[in-house]
Design the sequence.
């Protein structure tokens, strides 16, 4: 599912902010490296991505020169947490299950929490982890609706006050070629002003092929990728990577989104098969976003950003005048490991770092596009994210079931195959 220009996952809302954040840190080097520092790590969400993040944390520790120890695991399904516990020597009493599994994990002595439960739950988990004073790695996307995205931004603000690190799973922001190219083009202006662009995540069909026919809340969690309320639709769950690049290079979220989409072949869940969106970033800059999951079609995952003096795919100009990457930041062999290197590096510096806002804004941009394709309407950022009075229905739009519904046992099963009709609902 990965294409040449995309891995599955910076420390900044922009390169300037990142440089300032990193510049505030002291040198890791001899002060921590090789002195036997051990961090206690826990994982919420023991599926494939979560297990990958945990394995990446152990590899990152070797690169950074510290140690990590997995001390607690949590998953909606307790048996899955216990299965992972066997690999890492975590006893059953420190393996938590159920919709409130995160509460048990956060009550332990864990210092760094990795979060990879379904996107619906991530804003709740992050908010609780920050409240508990834990450092966090949170997978993308971080929410599926506007209130969830704002909840993450608020958690990020609280984390800064507490000195808590939040690193996000928008991993291309962690890749050195992307960081260097962004510095050269978006910060130093090597190609002049941004004029236009396109980003895409067009691939073959993924996830369930036959109807799921869910009967219980557990059935929804087992098939979360197929349900808009749990995943945000594939535009949010996957295409957020490329949308994040658009926001990063533009320097801010779009002003509005308009587009179209539909469901042609999918038999499971309630998502669209494709989305095509025009994001208006202001000053005449428009970036086209397209994502699709249909077999037998042309595929492309990537970025093409056009400037006054040339164009970039986001990672092809590694020659800035000044590197935004700290000289002592180790470079990992993969982006998924680099994320975890960055977590340990920043925690080791003892300084707060907020990637929550950037990943929340990129998640919200994907949500903005999804609402535009579902409704067929022009959807404005300020109405959805900043001004509760302009369009209260949009500002407060909350997908059902919510994370709280799972905790309370009030989940209503969505109707499979029933999707929004643009211009009608």
Sequence:
């Amino acid at each position: 599912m990965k294409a040449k220009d995309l891995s599955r996952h910076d420390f900044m809302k922009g390169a300037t902010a990142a440089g300032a954040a990193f510049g505030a840190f002291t040198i890791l080097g001899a002060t921590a490296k090789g002195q036997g520092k051990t961090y206690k790590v826990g994982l919420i969400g023991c599926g494939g991505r979560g297990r990958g993040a945990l394995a990446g944390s152990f590899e990152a520790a070797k690169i950074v020169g510290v140690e990590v120890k997995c001390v607690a695991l949590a998953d909606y399904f307790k048996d899955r947490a216990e299965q992972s516990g066997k690999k890492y020597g975590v006893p059953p009493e420190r393996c938590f299950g159920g919709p409130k599994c995160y509460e048990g994990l956060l009550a332990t002595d864990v210092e760094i929490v990795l979060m990879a439960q379904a996107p619906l739950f991530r804003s709740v988990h992050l908010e609780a982890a920050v409240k508990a004073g834990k450092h966090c790695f949170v997978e993308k996307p971080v929410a599926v609706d506007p209130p969830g995205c704002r909840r993450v931004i608020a958690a990020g603000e609280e984390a800064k006050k507490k000195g808590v690190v939040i690193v996000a799973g928008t991993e291309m922001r962690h890749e050195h070629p992307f960081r260097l190219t962004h510095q050269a083009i978006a910060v130093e202006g090597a190609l002049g002003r941004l004029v236009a662009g396109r980003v895409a995540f067009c691939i073959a069909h993924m996830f369930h092929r036959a109807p799921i026919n869910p009967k219980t809340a557990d059935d929804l969690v087992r098939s979360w990728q197929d349900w808009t309320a749990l995943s945000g639709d594939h535009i949010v769950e996957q295409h957020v990577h490329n949308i994040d690049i658009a926001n990063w290079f533009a320097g801010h979220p779009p002003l509005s989104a308009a587009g179209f989409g539909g469901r042609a072949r999918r038999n499971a869940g309630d998502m669209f098969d494709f989305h095509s969106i025009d994001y208006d970033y202001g000053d005449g800059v428009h970036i086209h976003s397209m994502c699709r999951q249909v077999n037998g079609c042309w595929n492309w995952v990537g970025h093409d950003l056009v400037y006054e003096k040339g164009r970039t795919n986001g990672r092809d100009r590694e020659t800035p005048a000044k590197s935004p990457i700290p000289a002592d930041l180790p470079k990992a062999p993969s982006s998924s490991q680099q994320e975890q290197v960055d977590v340990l590096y920043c925690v080791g510096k003892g300084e707060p770092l907020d990637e929550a806002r950037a990943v929340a804004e990129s998640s919200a941009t994907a949500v903005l596009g999804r609402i535009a394709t579902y409704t067929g309407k022009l959807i404005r950022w300020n109405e959805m994210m900043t001004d509760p009075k302009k369009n209260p229905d949009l500002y407060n739009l909350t997908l059902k079931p919510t994370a709280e519904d799972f905790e309370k046992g009030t989940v209503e099963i969505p109707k499979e195959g029933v999707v929004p009709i643009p211009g009608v609902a």
Observations:
- Confidence is low (pLDDT under 50) at residues 1-34.
